Amino acid sequence: MPDFSAIDLQAIENLRALNPGDNDEFLREITGIFLEDTPIRLAELDQSLIAGDVSKFTRAAHSIKGSSSNLGATGLRAAAEKLEHQARTQGLGNVTGLVAQVKAEFSRAQAELSTLVGR
User: Fold this and answer.
1) Residues of the domain holding 104
2) Residue pair 81/69 in contact by the 8 Å Cβ criterion
3) Considering the domain boundaries, does residue 1 fall inside one?
4) Model-level pTM?
């Protein structure tokens, strides 16, 4: 059995419980949106970091935090929360390592979610 350390399986079960008997159709839809939207938010992080746009940067980090929380991507949620907090309180001067951590956590979550929903 695969190791699902990046995804809280209880969150997945909670999503499945919202539409029981739909053969995971709802879960696949929600996961698909997450897997399509998050790379856009990651690109926004990069673009707003280059532009020095703290507001856009923190919105992108906040969006990643929320969507990852909904899908139980706990490592990604924690990394995005830390990134959002640092950008809000200290600006963008020292966030490069945290951005890399968010991207790495997304890769882990992406792989596990794809396995879970058969994408």
Assistant:
1) 9-117
2) no
3) no
4) 0.92
